[in-house]
Amino acid sequence: MKLYFDPTTHLLAAAHYQSEGQHGMVDNDQRWSDYRTVDGKQFAYATTIYRDGAKFLESHVVEVNLNSKIDESLFVKPEAPAAK
User: Fold this and answer.
1) Which of 17, 65, 18 is nearest to 41 (CA)?
2) What is the pLDDT along the chain (84 residues), one digit of tens a residue?
3) Residue 8 and residue 53: Cα distance in Å, rounded?
C-alpha cells in the first residue's frame, strides 16, 4: 500500500493498493476529500474508490459524532432459548 498526503495540509489524500477481485488481482486507488473539522480533528467527508481505473464506489459522510452515548442495551447478552 502506498499512502499519499497533501503537502500543504498533511492530510491523507489517497492510497494505492491491490485487492482480490472476481477475476484476480485489481489495482485500487482510494481518494479522500472534503475534510472538515469536528471537535478539533479533521475528517474526510467524501471518499471515492477506483478499481483498475474505473469508478467503483463513492461515499459521502452526512454527520460525524465523536464520543456519543451508546445505548448499553445493544450489548446485553440475549437469553438462551427455553428448552423444549
Assistant:
1) 65
2) 999 999 999 999 999 999 998 889 999 999 999 999 999 999 999 999 999 999 999 999 999 999 889 899 989 998 888 777
3) 26
